[in-house]
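Obj.: predict assembly geometry.
Materials: sequence records (below).
Method: joint structure prediction, all chains together.
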Amino acid sequence: MAIFAVSDFREAARRRLPDFLFNYIDGGAFEEVTLGRNQADLQSLTLRQRVLRDVSDMDLSVNLFGQELAAPFLLGPVGLAGMAARRGEVQAARAAAAAGVPFCLSTVSTCSLQEVTQGAGSPPWFQLYITRDRSITEALLDQAIETKCTALVVTVDMPMSGIRYRDFRSGMSGAPGLKGQARRLFQALCRPSWSWDVGLMGRPHGFGNIAPFMGGNTGMEDFVSWVAGNFDPTVTWKDIDHIRSRWSGPLLIKGILDPEDAQTACAAGVDGIIVSNHGGRQLDSAPSTASVLPSIVKAVDGKATVLADGGVRTGADVVKMLALGAQGVFLGRAWAYALAAGGQDGVARMIDLLMTEMRVTMALTGVAQVQEICSKVLVRQ
Ligand SMILES: Cc1cc2nc3c(=O)[nH]c(=O)nc-3n(C[C@H](O)[C@H](O)[C@H](O)COP(=O)(O)O)c2cc1C
Ligand SMILES: CCCCC(=O)C(=O)O
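Observations (raw structure tokens):
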């Protein structure tokens, strides 16, 4: 199908992926209220059209943590994204490296940190989950240090995995044993081009970084039960202090949605905060990220770099997040859909598309430099 926008990538992904995988990527927690709010609140913001301001000298580049980015967005951590296409995270990381934007590898990727680093020719950012068995967290942290990852993102909004009814309904989880396997196999057989590309059921992939800790188990239900058993409800700010003492590079906390938590994060010495509700996959009925971003930027008061994600599907959405005070934006589903639809080329195309949309949006709002984007590009409501 012809692709012009991220919404087309989503439709192409829906057609190409087996049902359980598309719904895992596309879905959110419980009734998906927050998932809907993220996009709806961004869409409800009105941009201010300005004219006759010479916007010919356009520059999208930004510097984050001493790293030069070609555009103010990056590919955020998406677990199991690698199942969307053969050696998927390597393909996405290559597209990101070629475009000059960072790629952040999830703890629960299908390709390992080593494979992604070798495949892309440079180390990615690494996203760390703190596991119940802290020796796993330590081992992952050691790997990130050895690999010289360019930033560490500690995700803190998952002391417990959110409940996603779509995963139950599709057979991704909640249908253990043969029944679940048979359902997923049937869905894969209905998607021959995906099955051919990734190998039946993504089997050759394994579960990258966590595979060594899964005791030789390689099935989807093994993954789901590993996750359920290893996410740790005892996590506190002390764990962040510990990670801060071990990690000297840029440290970001992902999953902040409250100004008080943002201030505590600054006091813990983090370099960056990612305002995120995990793409509406954790606390359903939590506010959209766009709605809380300005109050968090105010609370942080320049003590850390504030990034944001949630519902970003267009270049205009990126501009809006920056207008609300973010210094950079993480993409989630946008790149996962593109990877599913077209592998490395799909992700490259998606990045290019967002850059083009940003340029046009900036030109029509009368700004040429990313640094000029501020609340003035929004119509006050
Ligand atoms: C399929 C999927 C898997 C995800 N896995 C992770 C993960 O492993 N670690 C993490 O920190 N965030 C994860 N996230 C959350 C994303 O990093 C990001 O916060 C979210 O997708 C942003 O919302 P958006 O997809 O609407 O842009 C995942 C999101 C999706 C859609
Ligand atoms: C299943 C939990 C790990 C991946 C993740 O963070 C997500 O699916 O949102």
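Conclusions so far: Residues 79, 108, 161, 227, 278, 281 surround 2-Ketohexanoic acid (ligand 2) (CB under 6 Å).
To do: check interface contacts against the pulldown list.
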